[in-house]
Structure formats: C-alpha cells, structure tokens
Design goal:
With 119 residues, the protein is mostly helical. Helices cover 77% and strands 0% of the residues. The two termini are 14 Å apart.
Length: 119
C-alpha cells in the first residue's frame, strides 16, 4: 500500500505541474498524464523486480531495450500529437525525470516494507 500511495502522490504532482505551473489546456493535460502513466509503469517494473535496492542486480538487456523503446515511442506520440493533443518535448522529459526520481525515492520505502513484512 505504501508504494501505491507513492505512485498516487506522483500522479497528483504531475497533474498539479501540468495545470498549475505549465497552465496546459485539458487536452494537453490528458496527453501529459498519458506519458506519466507509461513512464511510471515502466519505473514501477524496475522498482519491484528486485527485493533489495533496485540497483542490486542489472536488468536484462531485453528489459532495458523494451523500456527504451516504450519511452521513445510514448514521447514521440505525445510530441507529434498522434491520437492525442501534442505537447512540447520539455514537459514530456520533465515527467520522465519525475518518474525516475520518484522511483529512486520509493526504493528505500520498498526495502523497508519488504524487510518489515518479510514477504
């Protein structure tokens, strides 16, 4: 539950950024939130794949390649506006950075929860 609350908090942070700081119209907010869902989903895979620190073992090359492809494809769709309102590259990269930082911030919580519950 602790990790889920962290992801929800990240979602609200990204929403507040899109609406309150960047002042994006609703259609672009939807696009940016789409990128957040994809990037956070990818970050969550790396976060939960290892019981210890997320960097304790190297991810498989195929996982890294799939993640890179997913991030590039998502960013390209969002920036080009294919099937959604286009958003500038800057906000997309910012959301990617937030997902990465959030993943690193949640890692100690994950380790603590797993040690405490011995799951």
């Amino acid at each position: 539950m602790g990790l889920a609350l962290g992801v929800v908090a990240e979602s609200f942070l990204d929403l507040a950024l899109a609406r309150g700081v960047l002042h994006l119209p609703p259609a672009q907010v939807q696009t940016l939130m789409f990128t957040m869902l994809v990037f956070t989903g990818q970050a969550t895979v790396y976060l939960v794949r290892e019981r210890g620190r997320l960097w304790d073992s190297r991810p498989a090359t195929l996982l890294l390649a799939a993640t890179a492809g997913d991030v590039v494809a998502t960013a390209a769709l969002a920036v080009s506006g294919i099937a959604m309102a286009p958003v500038a590259l800057g906000p997309v990269v910012l959301v990617l950075g937030i997902a990465a930082v959030w993943m690193l911030a949640l890692d100690p919580l994950k380790v603590w929860i797993l040690r405490r519950t011995r799951w």
